Amino acid sequence: MALGTRLGRAALAVWLLLPLVPLVLWAAADRWTAPAVLPQAWGTAGLRDAVDSGAGTASLRSTVLGLVVAALATPLGAMAGRALAGSGVPAGGAVLAALLSPLVLPPFAVALGLDVLLLRLRVPASVGVVLLLTVAALPYTTVLMRTAYAAHDPGFEEEARTLGATARRAVLAVQLPMLAPALAGAAFLAFLVGWSDYVVTLLVGGGQLVTLPLLVASAASSVGNEAQVAVLSLGSVLPPLALLVAVGLLGRRR
């Protein structure tokens, strides 16, 4: 590996991890007052406060929400991306623009407007949150899978068919393994939309679905509990970061 590549990766790692250093220090600090450079007292008070505030249950809800959104948005994005990568969709540019529209509209305005509609239709709060977050994740999964299908060579499946494989077998044994890194990346982005959402979960969930981002915002609005906020923030950042590393390793292996 070239020296420049190594230095670039090291610089990127420092850029991503350096902001976590103050959070780690605050999370382990029982007392840290100015002008001290480091905490004067170390301990686990922040962790205890975070657990007492319901961090475990909120993390579980965020995980389930992210997984459900990923399970819905990834196959939908793959189907849309495959159709848009070909030439069989009339007015493909307009269709793609419609799919990307959730990125243009303000999330607060969209959630507030659709919340009234969902209430009138008597859609359960949790179902409404999942539906809106799936729509919000579709632009990411569609664009990523459209790029993957555009670069994919269908000749591999045709070769498998000539060797006796059925169409279904060719898709499962040839196409999906070749597109696995793109599918993993799309699933990661969709999971991140569900895991990190605050606006839709707050407005549409109506306080019934308390996820980790809601808990972080609630703790951050108070004063004097910096250690608790740091622990909750680390709990919000580290799982997606670990998942990102796993997706990157999968891409390298492929």
From TrEMBL:
Identification of the protein by name: Putative spermidine/putrescine transport system permease protein
The entry's keywords: Cell inner membrane, Cell membrane, Membrane, Transmembrane, Transmembrane helix, Transport
Source domain of life: Bacteria
Annotated localization: Cell inner membrane; Cell membrane
Record field: transmembrane: 64-84, 96-119, 125-149, 170-192, 229-251
Gene3D superfamilies: MetI-like
InterPro entries: MetI-like, MetI-like_sf
GO BP terms: transmembrane transport
Chain segments annotated as coiled-coil in the UniProt record: none
Family label: Belongs to the binding-protein-dependent transport system permease family.
Cellular-component GO terms for this entry: plasma membrane
